[in-house]
Each structure stands twice: as structure tokens, then as C-alpha cells.
Design brief:
21 strands; alpha+beta; single chain; FAD/NAD(P)-binding domain; Alpha-Beta Plaits; about 525 residues; globular
């Protein structure tokens, strides 16, 4: 059998995927009877330039060995078929571990680090400061509905990590060969197989929660010990190597290998690590606001007269605008079609926004962060590595006060923000617990406000109608990425303390579900290579 890849195969909205075989045969100059199989590698929607939207495919075509192809296509034949398990992490364990590996955090990085270790029959203790997902969901609902915040069980802390309450995007710019393997594991745990081929795959918060529960059960079956409500409060260091972790300020767990997958909001853990000599460095991040439009409006802007076509998903957008005179860049981030803007505080007296969608993306509103790049010299006034954490909290506290000191978020019509006018009402929004009409320029640095105003006006040139009385801005968006990096060597260990493997978003090396999972895999592989080989 011979295999060839075809790219750029297009289907109109009215055409069925059954036509892919016919179109592939026509391109190859053969009959459909010559084709053994047509596999979709990638599927993307092209709705650019207000032309009729079309789906564009990359296909893997398998034909009989004796099928005659043109010389052009014979040269492009795939010489090897994708094998079962290709891209699967493979490492041989040749010496047994002395102590269990401690994994701190059960977000994507921690879960997949634990998964790799468990695959190699390495004893793992996974410590999560928050509760199991079922309890966590109840606590989050209490916060959204009543403003009652649990500091250890919230949108940021608990089983599954911060990504549990999100759109569940699985996009990643990395070409890591394990990306597909991670998605296949998610499919095994209950995700739709469509995530394997979609150009912009997402799971949705509702399905992601079920997947996390299944992944937990799978890890336990593999021998992983998972302990909840176990916050690591200290690290014992002996001769510049980790020797134990302290849990809940009283329990000592001996460990000579610790994978740090703490997420970017564990400020108390960052501080303790810093005190114990773990080297960190400030890094750039981004801050801004979250914008919310009616989804029907975004559909109309993006799809035009085809906006109501049943084959089209809720419309998305990604916008960027350089601001040369300020030497800044404004861009959208984590756009959630048919979703909600959510409050995601984990500490008292802070308001933080994020976006979330269910798998169906069937909500009334579309939302996205609009953020401005923050450089290290914007906040690093003191010669230490935690100044970025304090910088973002300044504005989160201001947002809390502006919202009424009750976890309501300050909000303003986008038109009022651009004109410098206060909003006395903002109409209906999806944000929970609620919003208070405010002056948003009071809750962000001046250069961020100026950049946002210029950037939003540029966005309206690209998406006419983006600026409208029906759009609200809600603040503040400060957790797009970590403002620091936990420095690590080429072998994955901390620069300064042996046996500590920082990884994921909290370590400053990833952003999002897939890249965090991949960095967790990398940490586990480094640990195995460093520790368990003769």
C-alpha cells in the first residue's frame, strides 16, 4: 500500500466529508476504487476576507500498491506509515527508585509528569493543595453565586489546575512530537476524537472536568498515590539538594526528587522556594481587561451573510496591534466563543478575570482578554525575583476595591472607556459573582490604559463593529502567564537546588494545557534520565 499526504483540500459548507475521497481521487488522477483509506490529519475553517466560508483539510490518502500515480505524486509518497504508538514517550527503567517521586500540583504538568513516571513503574506521590474536583466545583459555585471564597479550593487551586475552568483550548505552537500522544490520552479519558484533527481543538470546561476525574482514576490504577488538601509549606534542603517536603506545616515526606508543577498563582510556594535558595528570575508577562460582546455580533462580523449557517461554529477572533509610539503591543488572548467571563480569585481582596466555555460554546456572549505586554523594567524596582507577583497584585487589589470590596468586578462600556467617561450602567454581562460600573483606567497602569485605547481602535479597523455600545470591558486580566521563571539547568533540575524539577506554567516554561502537559513530560523524562539509569 502507498500513502501520500494532500493539503489544502476544500469543502464548501454545503458539501459532505464523503466528497473528500472523490476530490482526492480527482487530484491524484485515479478512481475512488483505487483508494483504500482517507484519514483526516487536520481540519480548519477558512472564513477570511468575507469570502464564502470553507473547510480546509490535510488528508492522508492510502492507495493500493499497484495504483499508478503521476511522477509528481510518486515523489511525494510517504515512505513510512504512522505506527501505533508513534510519538509515545519511551524510556527503559533499569534501576529501581529508592524513594517515591513527589509531584506537587495536579494541573496538566503535574498530571502528565505523574503519568509518565507511573508508566515506568516509578512510585509517585502527587500532592494537591486543593480538594478533589467534585468538591472543588461546589466551592467554585459558592464563590460565583455568593462571593464566598475558599482560599484552597477555587478556580486556581484544586484538582485539574486553573485550566479546569477555561475553554479547554488544546492549541500549542510547539512542534513537540508528544503533542498528539497527549491528545490521544485525553481521548482515552473521554475527550472527543475530533481534537486529534481540528486545527483549533478545544474540550470545554464541562467535558474537561469528566476527563480529569477519569485521569485521576487511571493514575490510581497505575499505582500513583494522590493526596488532596496537602499543601507543601516548606522544603528541606541538605547540601544543596532536596531531602524532604513539609506538608500542611507538620507532615514530613522524605524525597530526593520533587517535580514542581505548582501553577502560576501559588505565591506562598514561590516565596518559600525563594527563601530556600531556589533561583528565580523576573520575566515579561501581560495585563489588561476582558472584553465581552454578544456572540451574534461576533458571528455577524466574522461570517457576514453566512452567520446563521448551521455548519458554522460560533465565530472566533485573534487580533494584534503594535503601538509603535509607546513601544508596546496589544493583543487578544484566550478568546472564548459562547462563553462566560469568570472571577478567579484565590486570595482575599483580589479580583481577577478569566474566560470559560462549555464544549458546545452555546452561550450568549463571546469574550476575550485584551492585554498589553509588560516588560521586566516596568515592575522590577527591587533586586529580587518576586516583584512581578507584587506588581500584578497591586492592580488586582484596586479592581477589588473598585468592584465594591465583594469580589464583584469593575466594568465599563467599551465606548466609555475609549472616551474617558465613567459608565453608570453596563447592562447584562455573564460575569459572576457580578459587576459594578466603574472607571477602569483607575485599576491599570497609565501606559496599559493608553495602549489599550489605541489597540482597541486598531481592532475596530480589522473587525468593524468591535467598538459598540453592546460591548463591555471587565477588569482585571493579569494571569495570562507567570511573571517569573524558576531557573533550571539543561538536565531539568533547579539551577541551585538538586532534585527539584520546575515545570509547567508556574515555572515560566509553558502556557496552556498542551504546552504544560508537554513540559511535565519533559520534567519526568529528565528525572528518569538523571536518576534511574546506571
Amino acid at each position: 500500500m502507498k500513502t501520500i499526504q494532500l493539503n489544502g483540500i476544500k469543502l464548501d459548507l454545503s458539501e459532505s466529508e464523503e466528497l473528500l475521497t472523490v476530490k482526492a481521487a480527482a487530484i491524484l488522477g485515479i478512481t475512488t476504487d483505487d483508494i483504500v483509506a482517507v484519514d483526516i490529519i487536520k481540519k480548519a475553517l477558512d472564513a477570511r476576507h468575507h469570502k464564502p466560508p470553507r473547510f480546509v483539510y490535510a488528508l492522508r490518502i492510502s492507495v493500493f500498491q499497484n495504483t499508478m500515480l503521476s511522477a509528481e505524486f510518486e515523489k511525494e509518497l510517504l515512505l513510512t506509515q504512522e505506527k501505533d504508538g508513534e510519538g509515545t514517550p519511551t524510556l527503559s527503567l533499569v534501576s529501581p527508585p529508592k524513594l517515591p517521586v513527589v509531584v506537587i500540583g495536579s494541573g496538566p504538568a503535574g498530571l502528565f509528569a505523574a503519568y509518565i513516571l507511573a508508566m515506568r513503574n516509578i512510585s509517585v506521590i502527587l500532592l494537591e493543595r486543593g480538594p478533589q474536583l467534585e468538591e472543588r466545583v461546589k466551592d467554585v459555585k459558592k464563590f460565583w453565586n455568593n462571593g464566598i471564597l475558599n482560599y484552597q479550593s477555587n478556580v486556581l487551586f484544586g484538582e485539574g489546575g486553573a485550566g479546569t475552568f477555561s475553554d479547554g483550548k488544546l492549541t500549542s505552537r510547539t512542534k513537540n512530537p508528544y503533542s498528539l500522544w497527549v491528545k490521544k490520552i485525553l481521548v482515552q479519558m473521554g475527550a472527543s476524537s475530533e481534537i486529534l484533527t481540528e486545527a483549533k481543538p478545544h474540550i470545554g470546561t464541562d467535558k474537561l472536568r469528566r476527563i480529569i476525574v477519569n485521569l485521576r482514576k487511571n493514575l490510581i490504577e497505575m499505582g500513583c498515590k494522590i493526596e488532596y488538601k496537602k499543601q507543601v509549606t516548606d522544603f528541606l534542603i541538605f547540601e544543596r539538594n532536596i531531602s524532604a517536603v513539609i506538608v500542611n506545616a507538620k507532615e514530613e515526606i522524605r524525597a530526593d526528587n520533587v517535580i514542581l508543577a505548582i501553577g502560576q498563582s501559588a505565591d506562598d510556594t514561590y516565596r518559600r522556594l525563594f527563601e530556600r535558595g531556589v533561583q528565580m528570575a523576573d520575566k515579561p508577562f501581560a495585563m489588561g481587561l476582558r472584553v465581552e460582546h454578544p456572540q451574534e455580533l461576533i458571528n455577524s462580523i466574522q461570517y457576514g451573510k453566512w452567520r446563521n449557517h448551521p455548519q458554522l461554529p460560533p465565530a472566533e477572533y485573534f487580533l494584534t496591534a503594535p503601538i509603535p509610539d509607546l513601544n508596546r503591543s496589544v493583543y487578544t488572548f484566550c478568546m472564548c466563543p459562547g462563553g462566560s467571563v469568570i472571577g478567579c480569585a484565590a486570595s482575599a481582596g483580589l479580583v481577577i478575570t478569566n474566560g470559560m466555555s462549555n464544549a458546545s460554546r452555546s452561550g450568549e456572549y463571546a469574550n476575550s482578554a485584551i492585554v498589553v505586554n509588560i516588560r521586566v523594567n516596568d515592575f522590577a524596582s527591587q533586586k529580587r525575583s518576586l516583584s512581578g507577583l507584587e506588581f500584578r497584585k497591586i492592580w488586582e487589589r484596586k479592581a477589588f476595591i473598585a468592584g465594591g470590596n465583594n469580589y464583584f468586578a469593575p466594568a465599563q462600556k467599551i465606548t466609555d472607556f475609549l472616551q474617558g467617561n465613567p459608565s453608570y450602567s453596563v447592562g447584562k454581562t455573564s460575569f459572576l459573582p457580578g459587576v459594578k460600573p466603574s472607571v477602569l483606567e483607575d485599576v491599570l497602569p497609565g501606559f496599559v490604559n493608553e495602549s489599550l485605547r489605541k489597540g482597541i481602535k486598531e481592532f475596530d479597523k480589522k473587525m468593524c463593529g468591535f467598538i459598540t455600545e453592546d460591548a463591555n470591558l471587565i477588569g482585571v486580566e493579569t494571569r495570562t502567564s507567570s511573571p517569573l521563571r524558576i531557573c533550571r539547568r539543561s538536565d531539568g533540575q533547579s539551577n541551585t537546588i538538586g532534585g527539584i524539577y520546575p515545570c509547567g506554567e508556574g515555572a515560566g516554561y509553558a502556557g496552556g494545557i498542551i504546552s504544560s502537559a508537554l513540559d511535565g513530560i519533559k520534567a519526568a523524562q529528565n528525572l528518569i534520565n538523571n536518576t534511574y539509569y546506571f
